[in-house]
Amino acid sequence: MHKVELSYLLTPQRGKNTLIRNPLMDLLHAVREQGSISKAAKALDLSYRHVWGALKDWEQTLGRTLIIWDKGQRARLTEFGEKLLWAERQAQARLAPQIEALRGDIERAFSTAFDDNAHVLTMYASHDTALSALREQAGPHGLHLDIRFMGSVDAIAALNAGRCMMAGFHTQDRPDSQSVTAQTYRKLLKPGLHKLIGFAHRRQGLIVAKNNPLHITSITDLAKPGVRYVNRAEGTGTRVLLDELLDKAGMAASGIQGYPSQEPSHTAVAQAIASDVADAGLGIETAAREKGLGFIPLAEERYHLVCLKSELPTPQVQALLKELQSRDWQATLEELPGYSGETAQSGKVLSLRATLPWWTYRKEKPEKYA
């Protein structure tokens, strides 16, 4: 059975009918109405050679004869050709309401491209509840965030490779120059090249089962026998944070049951614990509250947005800054569990050296994660 593919055209003015046009059906209809290839070509404002060649190509593609070519007689459709036209009319008549609705949806989507007051900003970012909330809030204001969630390291790498305009990542408040965080991000971010934008202040901690039956209270409890941990993927900001906490506690990753496991988001970590697949996982407070789980705060974090300095004056980035500085957005942040709008510095362009003080002019020690 042959398959159907749909396509569309962008035109200044819509045609009078609501059909999905198909070049083969147009050819067959013209031949049947005109009775010859030459007259059909003239009616379609095409050359004889084009119409004849197209019909032959379609016959080869479909493996069926479409036209009866008797010399000296009117060109006629074969029974198969007639059945194709009949099937097309049936499908168009039956699906006309859905076709019209689909056309309307596509036109509305493309209307953004022709609206000079609307902006689309492509962002690769670490998974974050507040970022999803921003996308929903900004859309009606004409700022459409095209967000792809991934690990913090991959997001910044994508920004540096030119695959997005903005990246989202998170760190602890002012990590020192020898921290795991600094060793991870130092080679990706450079003063003078990047611009840092404040976004959110949030809490990360251990998500545990409701009422915390295993009495987990700190990172060291992950080494207790029988505690099943669920981890985030390598390259995510949360994985970097875990390694940072383990390093400070003098703990080895090998001592944690489940360290090699990976989940793609905070929500997925919370779901694994809610489903009793694991007992604990590092994540944001919002994910724990949404699933009715326990939460043990471990770290205060800054979620940063970053773009190239050259992109800061663009309409898309300026629209983002305006949205982030609005009272509506501040109110939204305050309502999210584990987030603070007051200390977020949302929408402010920050000093990379002051906020992430990792760069010095003396020779650095070898990097652990180089």
Furnish the topology, listing elements before pairings.
Layout: H1 23-34, H2 37-43, H3 48-62, E1 67-68, E2 76-77, H4 79-111, E3 119-125, H5 129-138, E4 143-149, H6 152-160, E5 166-172, H7 180-185, E6 194-208, H8 237-249, H9 266-274, E7 280-284, H10 285-290, E8 294-308, H11 315-324, H12 327-335, E9 339-340, E10 349-350, H13 352-355
Helix pairs in contact: 1-2, 2-3
Overview of this structure, please?
There is one protein chain. The protein is of the alpha+beta class. The protein is 39% helix and 17% strand. The chain is built from 13 helices and 10 strands. The strands form 2 sheets. Strands 3, 4, 5, 6, 7, 8, 9 and 10 form an 8-stranded mixed sheet that branches. A two-stranded antiparallel sheet has the order 1-2. Residues 361-370 have low confidence and may be disordered.
The gross shape turns out to be: elongated
Q: Uncertain regions: pLDDT < 50 for 5+ in a row? A: 361-370
Distance between the termini: 54 Å
Helix content: 25-40%
Count of helix runs: 13
SS-based structural class? alpha+beta
- What is the helix/strand order? HHHEEHEHEHEHEHHEHEHHEEH
- Biggest sheet character: 8 strands, mixed
Number of strands: 10
Query: How confident overall, as mean pLDDT?
Result: 90
Question: Summed up, what is this model?
Answer:
The chain has 370 residues and is an alpha+beta fold. The protein is built from 13 helices and 10 strands.
